[in-house]
Amino acid sequence: MNPLLLIVLLTGACVGSFINVVVWRLPRGESVVWPGSRCPHCGHSVQWHDNIPVLGWLALRGRCRNCYQPISARYPLVEALTAGLWLSATWAIGFSSGTFSTDPITTLVTLVGGFVLISLLMPLVLIDIDHLWLPEPICRGGVIAGLLATGLVAAFAEQQTEGSLLFNHLLASAAGLLVLEALSALAERLVGQPALGLGDAKLAAMAGAWLGLAGLGVAMGIAVISGALFGIIGRITGRLKPREPFPFGPFIGVGIWLVWLMGPQWWWTQWLALIGP
Q: What is the spatial distance between Cα 76 and Cα 78, in angstroms, rounded to a whole number?
């Protein structure tokens, strides 16, 4: 394997290990940096060699070294998934939308931006699945990071595109926030309960900051279609009761990442081909 790709995989797995910590501690109001990793059953500190992503869990056979209680397989799965998604960011460089130029500096900014984006989306998706909550600090940080990445790309783009690119993403971020908040308020007036949480609106703002107007529209389209399919299947199978809420953040997160990988134009072309004559 290419040494650079191996570094990406290993670093992504280590970030995935930290994401596990964030997902566990942040909803409980605990510090995500102190103390170090510990067993949730007995509180015993995890030794450094047991904390190696994926391999540590395998070496322990999925049990705590101290109390022998099982350690969820979700931990190595999150580490492996994060590593794989980091690797997909390197693959996406050749498939990104035409917004990004092909010069080395812009390519590097785009690549690092992909690493940052997926590292923000992963804890948001997992926390929403666990708690039906999208932490505002992560969403707010995601908006700032997206606009910063856009600004850096614009700075190295052709002069005439610099202002328009950043303005497009600023406008998309505001539109994502306001439109989803309005839809949630409208649904509450019509059916007596919000259709979307305010966290979903903040995640949509993050999507706009990273993807721009066109990307935001495609990402939300993917989220709505996949979320609707999930809801229909859940109702048919009886897993979802009438008006039972389910997390919409994961569908937005998947939409954001798929658009980041392929670009909005690619998805629009596929849609036209699907509904075309």
A: 5
